[in-house]
Design a protein that fits this description.
single chain, alpha/beta, two-stranded antiparallel sheet, TIM Barrel, binds flavin mononucleotide, 8-stranded parallel beta barrel
């Protein structure tokens, strides 16, 4: 009977399937069902540091919609109570979630560099979070802000939280860094217990007749996994922190690829929104069967097998791969349409 257990952020998980941050984990009934279906851990939807700032300024302005009373930087922050229950509601929910399920409950904190991360993180720790996932969402849109400034701030933030908190800290990263390997290494050295790769950005769309910018959220496609696989395979060779893959994990093959790339765990949201919670049970059974068919007794036997350090052809993840892919397209009989 293959052992599906894995280690993530210091916890022994019964399998590598974690439900990532989204409204799926926003109700007690749902998290119980997710646990029943096989989820090994859950990440709650994000609490936004702006919400904590607004509350500390006087919750009443926020609730009764008098946004003009708020400081300029906070006027455009949408009311998020419907999404994550507000600050008080989130903390109460986190506390209740801890008693409702046995699996680790990871709180998610989303903010930028103007945020008061430490007090917010301490609130989540006090409410019972088993671990904290940081979603540092900062769009580097000002030409005066340099890459090294942003990266230094991220590293300093992780170091401060690591030193001040008792619970493990994971960082949900974006792929949009010039030197991702260097940043990941520095975050690892700063004490990050886990790196979650990668955040999906929901790019705004245009409504052309109205000249308006509109928010747009599309669920992931399995093809998005490849960017994660490549980076997990690269990072695994020198990062001590645990790695979790989020983005494009839909099938059991995706789970196996993630582990082979070197991930400790994979996270799911889109696949569960599309296929229901029962998909967790299916994935677990299929993973079990795959290991059995291949006479493998645990995940350790395949973890990192496809990572850069074990690849006989390291170029497969690097520049030469790009050239090979371009060449293979022509090789497949590509004919331009006239
Ligand atoms: C409706 C929805 C809400 C989400 N909310 C959050 C969130 O609050 N915080 C966060 O870090 N990620 C959030 N995500 C991103 C997911 O956690 C996940 O990283 C992303 O969907 C990629 O994984 P997937 O391919 O399994 O969907 C959300 C995703 C969806 C679809």
């Amino acid at each position: 009977m293959p052992d599906l257990s894995t280690r993530y952020l210091g916890f022994t998980l019964k399998n590598p399937l974690i439900v990532s941050a989204s409204p799926l984990t926003a109700s007690i009934e749902q998290i119980r069902q997710l646990e029943g279906a096989g989820a090994a851990a859950i990440v709650l939807p994000s609490l936004f540091t702006e919400q904590i700032k607004i509350q500390s300024l006087g919750m009443e302005y926020y609730l009764i919609g008098q946004r003009e009373m708020l400081p300029e930087a906070l006027k455009h922050v949408p009311a998020m109570e419907g999404y994550n229950k507000g600050v008080g509601g989130y903390l109460a929910y986190l506390h209740e979630a801890k008693t409702a399920v046995q699996i680790p409950v990871i709180a998610s904190l989303n903010g930028d560099f103007d945020s008061d991360w430490l007090p917010s993180a301490k609130l989540l720790q006090a409410a019972g979070a088993d671990a904290l996932e940081l979603n540092i969402y900062f769009l580097a849109a000002r030409p005066s802000v340099t890459a090294s400034e942003i990266e230094d701030r991220m590293v300093n933030l992780v170091q401060a939280l690591h030193q001040q908190l008792k619970i493990p800290v994971a960082v949900k990263l974006s792929p949009y860094f010039t030197a991702l390997a260097n940043l990941a290494y520095r975050l690892d050295q700063a004490g990050a217990n886990g790196l979650v790769i990668f955040n999906r950005f929901y790019q705004p769309d245009f409504v052309i007749e109205e000249r308006a910018v509109t928010p747009s959220l599309e669920l992931s496609q399995p093809g998005e996994l490849r960017l994660r696989l490549r980076w997990a395979a690269i990072l695994r060779s020198f990062i001590q922190a645990d790695l979790a893959i989020t983005g494009g994990v839909h099938s059991v093959e995706d789970v196996i690829k993630g582990i082979m790339a070197g991930a400790n765990a994979v996270m799911l949201t889109s696949a569960l929104l599309q296929q229901g919670f029962g998909h967790l049970t299916t994935l677990q059974n299929e993973l079990h069967n795959w290991l059995e068919t291949h006479h493998l007794s645990n995940l350790e036997m395949i973890r990192g097998q496809m990572s850069l350090q074990y690849q006989s052809d390291p170029a497969a993840f690097e520049r030469a791969n790009y050239m090979t892919v371009l060449k293979s397209f022509v090789g497949e009989g590509f004919k331009p349409q006239n």
